[in-house]
Specification:
312 residues, mainly beta, Beta-galactosidase, Chain A, domain 5, 42% strand, globular
Length: 312
């Protein structure tokens, strides 16, 4: 056999056995609940469909319930950053702005582990952090996202996990009020209401002035919710006292963009001292529902809060 045909035979065997010439992620076997379409992953759970983009930091790029979109997607934005759901380290003062591209917008590697979809960043040279995002359906219309921050620097780091979700500029956000008063940092205060034990924010574009608006506050019970057009998104997480949160931060934050592009729903976990090589893990459970007809027609705050609590 000539050298030419020997080489062709070798390449054919390589392609068949190892997928040579393809991105290694294309050959990654996925759990039954997850499908791949081009550069996007889709997780289905009941009527819920979550879309993830491994090539853009493994971020959640779409969240649909029965076809209804709950997030600001990449189709709505030209910016590489201001859409979907992302994961940051806290306090934000460590890296300031813009977000670190290695962690926030560059490709993550795709693997699976015990029927979980796992996406892992490269190590950021500035902070030494490496992020991992693990996705797993955990029940009807419910998906658990577990975040990991690993410290690859050469010194101890005090860091907390922070999830950021961009929502359409409409609807209401609410959470059980904790032990601190609301603050707004460097931005205009967000016009929130105290309704019994709840902090409640109704989006009104007319009240957004010539700068961004924000509210930061301690929460209780470990949840924050968003409701719009009869659909509900709840984030469930471990509740922490104010003393456990990073300096200058609060457990729950709502941010309204000055150009009426999106609302951000943020929540964060406790600060952990990580020695070199150590990591923290933090899980957020996403609950998505279409509200019962009577509640959709009359979304009274206490009735909505009771419905949220019934899901947790």
């Amino acid at each position: 056999m000539s050298k030419r045909y020997s080489l062709i035979a070798f390449l054919a065997i390589c392609l068949a056995l190892f997928g040579c010439g393809k991105n290694s992620q294309d050959a990654t076997p996925l759990p039954e609940f997850c499908k791949k379409d081009g550069s996007r992953l889709y997780i289905k759970q009941g009527k819920l469909r979550m879309e993830i983009m491994p090539k853009v930091a493994g971020r959640v790029s779409s969240l649909r319930y029965d076809g209804h979109e709950l997030l600001v997607t990449d189709a709505d934005q030209t910016s590489i950053t201001d859409w979907g759901t992302v994961f940051w380290s806290s306090p934000q003062a460590e890296w300031n702005w813009p977000p670190i591209d290695t962690l926030d917008s560059k490709p993550y590697s795709l693997t699976t582990d015990d029927e979980r979809v796992v996406l892992t960043s490269e190590v950021d040279k500035k902070t030494g952090y490496q992020f991992t995002k693990t996705y797993l359906p955990t029940g009807n219309d419910r998906i658990a996202v577990t975040y990991r921050i690993t410290n690859h620097s050469d010194h101890e780091k005090n860091v907390a996990p922070l999830e950021v979700t961009r929502l359409p500029p409409s609807g209401d956000l609410f959470y059980p009020r904790g032990d601190t008063d609301p603050i707004s940092g460097i931005f205009y205060p967000l016009d929130v209401q105290n309704i019994d034990e709840l902090t409640w924010y109704h989006y009104d574009a007319k009240k957004i002035r010539t700068d961004h608006h924000k509210v930061m506050q301690d929460g209780k019970e470990g949840w924050v919710a968003y409701v719009d057009k009869g659909y509900l998104l709840v984030k469930e997480f471990a509740d922490n006292p104010p003393a456990a949160i990073a300096t200058g931060e609060r457990e729950i934050e709502i941010f309204a963009h000055v150009e009426h592009i999106f609302i951000e729903m943020k929540q964060q976990g406790a600060v952990v001292a990580l020695a070199p090589g150590e990591y923290l893990e933090w899980t957020v459970i996403w609950h998505v529902k279409k509200l019962p007809n009577d509640l959709a027609k009359n979304p009274e705050p206490q009735a909505l809060a009771a419905y949220v609590r019934s899901l947790l």
